[in-house]
Amino acid sequence: MTLRETLAYRPNVGIVLFNGKGEIFMARRADLPGDIWQFPQGGIDEGEEPEQAVWREMKEEIGTNNAAMIGKRDGWFLYDLPDHLIGKALHGKYRGQKQQWFLFRFTGHDSDIKLDTFEEIEFTTWRWVPPEDILSGAYNLGFKKEVYERLLPDILAIYQAAPKA
């Protein structure tokens, strides 16, 4: 049995935050070399429901909860870490993550977004990105590029079906 096979998936929530133009919030990781960009996401604490976790993570990672939930991807989305990160990333405890993804419409002002309000800073900078640019190669997504290639069609279908504000 390999180390990967002995490890569980970490319960996690993902946040896809759309602005009024249909652009998506993306941010550059503070803790990874190589200018890696991603959507906000974070672990589900023991005893916490995914919907509680997503609001907590949004506040911790981007400093605001000025958003309205517009949808959720059904089921758990699983991904494995690349081999070179097994036993290292996610405190070495997990083989990857099982995620529930939530979609939000941002209801605040860009000035409400503050990346430095929590003791553990996740991101160094952020921007609104047109959905078609996410997979274009303009942003280094690291190993999560494959995750986003699988995830993005579902996210965009949910967004397009959601009532517009």
UniProtKB/TrEMBL annotation:
Q: Determine if Hydrolase is one of this entry's keywords.
A: yes
What EC number is given for this enzyme?
A: 3.6.1.-
Any idea where the Nudix hydrolase domain is? 8-153
Residue positions of motif Nudix box: 42-63
Q: Name one GO molecular function term.
A: bis(5'-adenosyl)-pentaphosphatase activity
Which keywords does this chain's UniProt record carry?
Hydrolase
Looking at the keywords, is Hydrolase present?
Answer: yes
InterPro entries per UniProt: Nudix_hydrolase, NUDIX_hydrolase-like_dom_sf, NUDIX_hydrolase_CS, NUDIX_hydrolase_dom, RppH
Q: Give the Pfam families listed for this entry.
A: NUDIX
**Which cofactors does the annotated protein need, by name?**
a divalent metal cation; Mg(2+); Mn(2+)
The record ties this protein, via PANTHER family, to:
NUDIX HYDROLASE 26, CHLOROPLASTIC, UDP/ADP-SUGAR PYROPHOSPHATASE
- Task performed by this protein: Accelerates the degradation of transcripts by removing pyrophosphate from the 5'-end of triphosphorylated RNA, leading to a more labile monophosphorylated state that can stimulate subsequent ribonuclease cleavage.
The entry assigns this protein to a family as follows:
Belongs to the Nudix hydrolase family. RppH subfamily.
HAMAP family in the record, alphabetically?
Nudix_RppH
Q: What is this protein called?
A: RNA pyrophosphohydrolase
Origin species, per record, is Bombella intestini
